[in-house]
Write a structure and sequence with these properties.
The chain is mostly helical. It folds into two domains: 65 residues, no CATH class; 112 residues, Serine Threonine Protein Phosphatase 5, Tetratricopeptide repeat. It has twelve helices and two strands. Helix 1 packs parallel to helix 3 and helix 3 runs antiparallel to helix 4. The chain starts with a helix and ends with a helix.
Length: 177
């Protein structure tokens, strides 16, 4: 791989310059995880939404079927507009676990990012299955002083709605039909 094209492609990603990225894309190999990771991190760090969308469209399926954790962690830091692109490409990103760090929902709650919490809940994240400090994220949020009350309320409502869907209320509704 030509280092000049490599560097120019990465610069284009960071700057959000789609024209330049397309020019250099043919000269670089998008098949290496490290190179793609660098391209995404550059684009995400500057919140280059159009570039991230472009990269998701041109990178190999084996990359997007399991987007590397460092890329998704950077996307969480960038917020809901950026993370939504990854969920659109891979719905499981809404429920991705990052091992001892927790999962996407836990990290969004810790960041007090109400928009990202809403996005994750709307796309399948569960406040009772999500773990923060080995406890359900919703329980930790209720007991934490520094978590925004709007986020706590959102988690409680989501938890309550889904508890009803699976519990005795759902059985009663089914029986009454």
């Amino acid at each position: 791989m030509d280092d000049q094209h490599h560097d120019e492609f990465l610069r284009a990603c960071s700057e959000g310059n789609l024209e330049l990225a397309k020019q250099h894309q043919e000269q670089v190999s998008l098949g290496t995880t490290e190179f793609l990771q660098d391209a995404f991190v550059g684009a995400i760090s500057k919140k280059q939404v159009a570039m991230i969308d472009y990269l998701l469209g041109v990178c190999p399926d084996d990359f997007t079927s399991r987007i590397p954790d460092p890329v998704l962690l950077q996307a969480i830091d960038a917020g809901s507009q950026v993370y939504a692109l990854f969920i659109r490409k891979d719905a499981s990103a809404a429920r991705r676990s990052f091992g001892h760090m927790g999962d996407a929902l836990a990290l969004a709650v810790m960041r007090n990012d109400e928009g990202l919490v809403r996005l994750l809940l709307d796309n399948g994240a569960s406040p009772t299955e999500s773990k923060l400090f080995f406890k359900p994220t919703s329980d930790v949020a209720r007991g934490a002083q520094n978590i925004d009350k709007g986020i706590t309320k959102m988690l409680n409502e989501h938890e309550s709605n889904h508890r009803e869907d699976r519990g005795w209320v759902a059985k009663l509704k089914a029986w009454m039909k």
